[in-house]
Amino acid sequence: MSRKLLTLGVATLLMATTLQAQEVKNIIYLIGDGMGLASASMMQLENNYEATIFDRADNIALQKTYSLDNRVTDSAAAGTALATGAKTNNTMLGILPDGTTPQTLMERASEHGKATGLVVTTYIQHATPAAFYAHVKSRHEYATISEQLLNSDIDIAIGGGMAFFDERYEGREGALEAISESGYALHHNLDDGDDEDKCLFILANKEIEHREGYLAKATAKAIEHLEGDDEGFVLMVEGSIIDGAGHGNDAEGQQREMLDFMEAIEVAVAFAERTPATLVVVTADHETGGLSLISSNADFNLSEQGVEYRWTTNGHSGIMVPIYLYGTGAELINGIVENSTLGAKLKAIIAE
Ligand SMILES: [Zn+2]
User: Fold this and answer.
1) What is the separation of C-alpha 298 from the centre of its chain, rounded to a whole number of angstroms?
2) Is residue 269 situated within a structural domain?
3) Distance (Å, rounded) from C-alpha 328 to C-alpha 280?
4) In terms of Cα–Cα distance, which of 122, 127, 124, 150 is closest to 139?
5) How far is the CA of 332 from the centre of ligand 1 (A)?
6) In the predicted model, what is the mean pLDDT of residues 268-273?
7) Do the strands 233-239 and 115-123 form a parallel or antiparallel pair, or are they unpaired?
8) Does the pLDDT of residue 288 top 90, yes or no?
9) pLDDT of the residue at 305
10) Cβ atoms 321, 59 nearer than 8 A
């Protein structure tokens, strides 16, 4: 190929990449808390290797999850990296050790006129969702985090956590008054209407107890609320309790939580398929439990002897976690990246 043709080719490719990047209007960011590659592999195995939603990804990448002060991250530092593009110390949320508060993906989206939403199975003040709107030294400052949510521009939030509003505003009466004054309409039932601009669906005191089909339904509801916005939207959906099952070394429990999460991914991908300019990013904040899929018999001269799910810790592990990408702009994230690089790239994509 001549130099000129090559240059032309590169220029066209660059233009195409830029055009592609400009086309991303909506981002649906799904985070499986504690979902390692072994969790996804377990679901493939349990599905007899029929294609799962993970197999249908348009592109994949891997991310390194370590935090600023620990090779094994917690959800606060990892959430901060994924939400702001900056690594921080474990337990810190939306704040760096020097006190700087990096802008979150949701704050950037609001600045660009986009609507924003959060859907979780745990309380809405928990580390992963809070990383998208809060800035506190410790993830355990739930009362302060509750107040920061009321002062945020998040358009719709669905999850548990009423107890922490009560704590912050000294009882239910005070909480209801503060929520109403903040401009949020409060609902306790997912089937309620969501006609108001800013809605809080707080469905439990802490975690959502009965979750069968919950995450998919809540994700569909949030998308419906956000999709009317002319400038597009950014929605974060967390499969929050995958982590809890990992801490408990409970393979069956993790399969249930993974299925719930995968149903939500299906909803997001179906939306992306019918709505051009939508990027779906599925990843985890870290792996939990050190899950391994091992043969029940170490003798490989034998045929199938069964597979065991073996856990190696009740805590988190430092292994890389997968990134699955679907839809417009799926080609923009590649290779092995830092968790913070993924957060920074998504912020850059919506600023274009
Ligand atoms: Zn955990």
Assistant:
1) 37
2) yes
3) 8
4) 127
5) 29
6) 98
7) parallel
8) yes
9) 87
10) no
Q: Can you give the residue range of the structural domain that contains 98? A: 43-295+315-351
* 347 part of a folded domain: yes
> Is residue 329 domain-resident?
yes
Cα 100 to middle of ligand 1, angstroms: 25
Q: 275 is written with which tokens? A: 């709505």
Catalytic residue among 39, 67, 75, 340: 75
CA of 297 to the centre of ligand 1 (A): 31
Give the residue from 309, 299, 191 showing the smallest Cα distance to 253.
309
User: Domain with 331 in it: what CATH number?
Assistant: 3.40.720.10
Calpha distance 122→128 (Å, rounded): 10
Separation CA 135–CA 96 (nearest Å) = 9
CB 327 within 8 A of CB 278: yes
Give me the pLDDT at residue 19, please.
45
For residue 9, name the pLDDT band (cuts at 50, 70, 90). low
Query: Quick one: DSSP state of residue 163?
Result: H
Annotation marks residue 2 as catalytic: no
Which residues are within 5 Å of ligand 1 (an ion), measured at CB?
A: 243, 288
Residue holding tokens 């600045």? Answer: 111
Q: Alpha-carbon torsion 77, 88, 336, 103, what sign?
A: positive
pLDDT band at 131 (very low <50, low <70, confident <90, very high): very high
- For residue 158, is it within any domain? yes
Residue 162 vs residues 67, 142, 193, 214: alpha-carbon distances, Å: 30, 11, 19, 18
- Residue 38: what pLDDT? 97
| DSSP for 173-234, written as a single string | HHHHHHHHHTTPEEES-TTS---SSSEEEE-SSSS-S--TTHHHHHHHHHHHHHTT-TT-EE
CA 21 to ligand 1 center in whole angstroms? 33
Number of independent structural domains in the chain: 1
Give the pLDDT confidence of 113-126 residue by residue, as tens digits: 999 999 999 999 99
Query: For 331, which DSSP code?
Result: G
Rounded to an integer, what distance in angstroms lies between the CA atom of residue 186 and that of residue 288? 33
